[in-house]
Design a protein that fits this description.
400 residues, alpha/beta, 6-stranded parallel beta sheet, 15 helices, 34% helix, globular, binds L-homoserine
Length: 400
Amino acid sequence: MSNELNIGLFGFGCVGQGLYHVLNNSKGFTANITKIAVKNRDKKRTLPQELFTYDKFEILNNPSINLIVELIDDAEEAYQIVKHALQNGKHVVTANKKMVATHLKELVKLQEENNVSLLYEASSCGSIPIIRTLEEYFDNEQLTKVSGIFNGTTNYILTKTILEKLSYPDALKQAQEKGFAESDPTNDVEGFDAKFKAIIIALHSFGVFCLPENVLNIGITTLHEHDINYANEKNYKIKLVPTIKQVAPDKVAIFVLPKFIQQHIPLFFTDNEFNGVIVEGEFSGEQFLKGRGAGGHPTGAAVLSDISALSYGYKYGYKKITQNKSNQPENQISIKLYLRYNTEDELKKLKPISIDEKFESAQYKFVVGYFNLKTIKEEKDLILSNKLFVCVANDEVELL
Ligand code: HSE
């Protein structure tokens, strides 16, 4: 790719504006934003009106634009834009985790077929360079597990409500005002956003293509004071933790669940909108990366880094992809959970494999024991509608 970068930008929300600012303040790097496509004609813009268009083809069909930066909210529209751009020989940088996670296999193929590059560092864990680290540094080492905090909004809410005693609605409102939350925050608090990121990271760490519907995500919406008290008594913090773990040579388990975090784990000190990724390698052992996981500037900085990488022709190598791996996440695994429930019937439906601890009071009941992840996935609706709370109790993840 030529060093002259002419960017067609889609979206001028929190991340788009963050990128604009970051780009204008980066020394030794020139890239022109030629045109910005936006949806809302009524919104007051901070830049001259002639820079904006409402017609996506004004950018997509402009031969002088050699790089598309896609930062819109709508995953389906983003997919159409990115697909069109790749098919027409334009390189793309995107931050859209839902779009990337949902179409990963096709997007990898489109890059190969059209000899173009699609980079998406900003889609996963904001400013933490996790994808490039997996691609470039861990490209040949066999990894055993990647886990962490991949969502800034839930971490912010958990920090503010548990440590600073703010109410849940106020904490969410702050996360929205600060530009951390998705436009539909259900994606954050129910763990969908973290799941999309886990799926992307699973490809770069283990070479598997998993579809979102096959991966369990339960967020923090049913967390209750009782659960917080239990965690406080044990000196644990509660974090929403995606886990991607090799459970057999050809099998990877992926799930997103709240987890108790003990003080000696680096995630214990990863609060507010910060994200943290723990990469465990066969030979390197444990690595921990921490950084701002959400917000216009940190995410804009990740987009800038991708733009810069494209200026010297960078492409993902996808070296971990091999033919002998199952692309279905393995859900027949045993995990140790804390489960707060209301009735014995609910407990029965969740079919504990064994129970280590059981507590009953007039107010609430809980058990700590081993469960099959597959059953938890099948009973997700029961868990959410009856407001039960499940929380991973330790690191034991075993194939059943
Ligand atoms: N809503 C996302 C988060 C934004 O809170 O992490 C960054 O992907």
